[in-house]
Write a structure and sequence with these properties.
The structure holds two protein chains of two kinds. Helix content of chain A is 78%, strand content 2%. By secondary structure, chain A is mainly alpha-helical. The radius of gyration of chain A is 18 Å and the shape is globular. In chain B, the strands form eight sheets. In chain B, strands 1, 2, 3, 4, 23, 24 and 25 form a seven-stranded mixed sheet that branches. In chain B, helix 5 packs antiparallel against helix 6. The chains are: A mainly alpha, B alpha+beta. At the A-B interface, helix 3, helix 4 and helix 9 of A face helix 1, helix 2, strand 2 and helix 13 of B.
Chain lengths: 258, 660
Amino acid sequence: MLRALLFQVSAVVFTLCAVGAVTIVGWDRLTALRTDLQPRLRESAPYLAVLIAVLVLNSAVRDYAQQVSLLIGWNITPTIEAIEGDFVTIIQSFQTELLTAYFSYIYVYGYVFLLVFPVLAYIALSDRKPFQRLIVAYSLNYFIGLALYVVFIAYGPRNVEIAQNLLYDTNAQYQFLTSEVNVSTNVFPSLHTSLSATVAGFAYRTRDSYPIWLVLGSVIAVSIIISTMYLGIHWGTDVVAGLGLAALSIYLAERYID
Amino acid sequence: MTSSDTPSSLSRRAVLAGAAASTAATAGCIGQLQSALGQSQLSQLTLEIKTLPADSDPFSIRIARHLKSNLEAVGIGARLTVMAVSELSRQVLLNHDFDIYIGQFPHTQPPDPDVLYPLFRSTFDSELGWQNPFGFTHLTCDDLLATQRSSSGETRKQAVTDLQQLLARTQPFTPVVFPELATGVRTDRFGNWDTERPTRPHNLLSLSHTEGEPRTLRLVDVDARITDNRNPISAAYQQEESLLDLVYDSLALNEGSALVPWLARDITWTNGGRHPTASIRLRDGIEWHDGKPLTAYDVGFSYEFLRDTSLGSAVRPIPSERFRGRISLVDDVTVENSRELSLSFTETTQPVAQRALTVPILPAHIWRYRTGIERPVGRAGETTAGLTWNNPSAIGSGPIQFETADSDRVEFSRFEKHFLWRSPTPAPDGTSQTNDAANSTTDTQNQTTGTPESTELSAVENNSSTNKSDRPLNGTDVGGINGVVPRDDFEPPPEAYAVSPPFETISIETVSSDNGAIELLTSGDVDATVTNLSPEAIESIEGPDLELITNQSNAFYHLGFNTRRRPLRNPNVRRLIAQLVDKSMLAEESFGGYGVPAASPLAETDWLVDSLAWDETTATDPEVPFLGTDGEVDVETARERFRSIGYRFTNDNELISQIR
């Protein structure tokens, strides 16, 4: 089941990226890549290595971090509920079948595309900075996110009956995908939000090179951020924290690479 | 687009919350000043409700949500904290760190009333596990628990009646709903699913296998505890009807209506005075999964170890977190020889005493090294290695043995040498004796020196009753496959299990929610679900070869109160909180009709007292009726009731906590 899903997601994202490469990146930059790809990658290799290290670390220590979190973590679910109450219930009250389908696909397919495409688009730029900043910002998001997951134990609104579980109720198979990358106690902050907002932030910075991406990327990012709450997965608080994490990651990445 | 206002209104709210918090902080200071000056502190009473997240269990959280909103409506602050099942068990059962928890009763079958003994006995207040987690101390309750344990007939009936009424009146816990639990099964690879309890571990042994299909029985569960902890005596990691029931055998097996001899070949009861004794002869040639012989010494060790897992090295015994009530029935164990032992009981009767025969038997050669005293992080008080150990290889003597496990899957294989699956053959040396089985001490294995003269049936008193199966030895009926036992020593397994084993391996896949379990079932990746399915999830079970089996479970949902804490030590408060729960509405709405409301823990047994039978006509609790209608609490009535027991409310209708 998982393999079939992974194949589906890969196929969709690959197709979207191919279309995006032709329409947004353009032939000129793509043909230039034929000669420039290797030196550019070599130039940014240390940053890529860090990102890969963070991702490997993430998957390697996830189970262990989970156990540490159980011992020392602070269960903030009731605190979050006290802060925002039934905010997510209100978002879900706008529920329609069409919206649920849209947000489910955006949450799964749109998210992967949103993260993968700018990597491709920025390596195609002659300026190395956007690419390196993006990679550094991704690393920061994951690293800080993982640390916060150890410190804070929080269940999403779907798990405390504040919200319906719209994603799994309608598309139960997706939980096999999401459970591969996360566990139910890790909702604060929302990494879906922070990474989407990071991509949107950089899309704004590179608007001169990719004006269409600014529009498309922002629409997808905003949709993903809403979907995390609409689907009952995240609290509004997680989203606010995710936006903060995105801002911090962008700030640090730009300071580090200028 | 309106979503742009939302963050700003949210932040405004956050600002307001911050302002409120700072006001509250100053109020706190003034409050402290006031109390320093001898005045009472006016803070709102806040209670924390602990339970499982919706992914782990669809029903607990709905009861919790209902209780929280009704508490808040009345003016009591409520915090709802959800946590993983092992964490909840640790906090509630091991650390007693809770105000109110919502969970299921630990017995899935309608029990003997004696299960209430460990739950409410005041002397178990300081013990861990399902030993009085409520901290309930009531001397009349203690007396009734002792009486029902030691008496029979009308006396016992009266004690059980009084006990139910006392528990209903004092509400150390509040039974809410007995759930009707659904199991989804596939019939294409395995058939003959039990129509009541299809996934009860021992019922899996009677499945039939479809010719040509793989011989792996695949189950799916949301509870992943067995993937990293297979300790049968840990309260935080084990519960009834885990597959470990098939890994560890017991002397006798509870078949609901009767107890059948299991590891015991026969059990002879002597009801001398008021202290019964059970003389037990084990089946012959029993082995542990690691090939070592299982002897009466292991059995004796197990009873001793469960009673005190430190085996005397701790200042006071550190008993097993599970089976404590049953173990407390056993007074002494005498091992006669490698195959025979006797258990003598405390003041009780045989029907109660025999419950002690259902505890798991552990291999002494492994567990005797687990008696060291430990003080693990995050645990209150001392415990032993035997209780904290995760028992990775799980060596037992049961029909299945542990193979492998990773974070989301665990696999067991059939233990081919189990007594269920062996057939009688002539004794290898040809010196077969055809006398009564009691004389057949000629087998060459496990023989200790100094075997006493036959102590069996002939030696017991006249008033003894015999549970020995009197079925004729009829080996040809038994689909034995392996294991060879001399004919004279052969005792057929209990009738229901005398079938050829349907599977080679059993696996449990773990998923994150009931929807996922059903997804794997419908896609044909598993053969049965072993988790509580929500009424909504059940609807998606449809398709060829799929069946839904529902069963009235005795593992009722309840509110458990920590009566050690103020104000829950006050029975009036507990009664009023119980009255904020609309059990009928919950059964109908939250359980989707898959459940019945109840007022007594024995509601599904014949012991239920009439005065606590659920009143169908008024659809309300006979002892603690809901203060409202259709789930909506009648706020004014409820507040009046709280005032009548001495509580006051602030001008904002917040109930004032009585801290002096």
